[in-house]
Design brief:
- Strands 1-2-3 form a three-stranded antiparallel β-sheet.
- The chain folds into two domains: 34 residues, no CATH class; 94 residues, GMP Synthetase, Chain A, domain 3, CATH 3.30.300.
- The longest helix is centred in the middle third of the chain and has 23 residues.
- The chain is 33% helix and 38% strand.
- It is an alpha+beta fold.
- α2 packs across α3.
- The protein contains four helices and six strands; from the N terminus they run βββααββααβ.
Length: 143
């Protein structure tokens, strides 16, 4: 299976702007700019590649975690995962250096130790985690 997205960029890095489109249509002419990526700490002016990596990682983790819980005989309720991706100055440029996963999960009848074990396996096993060659941390809370 293959998925695709298209980026169009116009102009120089700092003054230019771009749009992103995805195969599903969920992003259509979604704007992104230098300021949205490197200046706007609020993250509200436009999207950026790191935000999209974070969304992919959070979604992938939730699906893997749900599957692994089910395979172990536990019915997951609501799984709320936030992925925080860090972009830092490194080696004269910038690099994505880590993704911090934070999950709050409703899973009835599971022992806390088993919950943590399965969460760790999901962190390691989700395809996006496997694709990222960066530090990945996990903070898993059973609610």
């Amino acid at each position: 299976m293959k998925r695709k997205a298209t980026s169009i960029w116009n102009g120089s890095l700092k003054e230019g702007n771009g749009t992103l489109d995805t195969q599903s249509g969920v992003l259509e002419k979604q704007p992104y700019t230098f300021n949205a990526r490197f200046v706007d700490e609020s993250g509200k002016s436009a999207t950026n590649p790191e935000e999209l990596i974070a969304a992919a990682h959070a979604g992938c983790f939730n699906m893997a975690f749900s599957n692994m819980l089910t395979q172990e005989g536990h019915t997951p309720g609501k799984l709320t995962t936030t992925a925080t991706v860090s972009l830092e100055k490194k080696d004269g440029g910038f690099a994505v250096t880590r993704s911090a996963l934070k999950v709050e999960a409703e899973v009835e009848g599971i022992a806390p130790e088993k919950f943590q074990e399965i969460a760790g396996k999901a962190k390691e096993g989700c395809p996006i985690s496997k694709a990222l060659s960066i530090e990945i941390t996990l903070d898993a809370t059973l609610t």
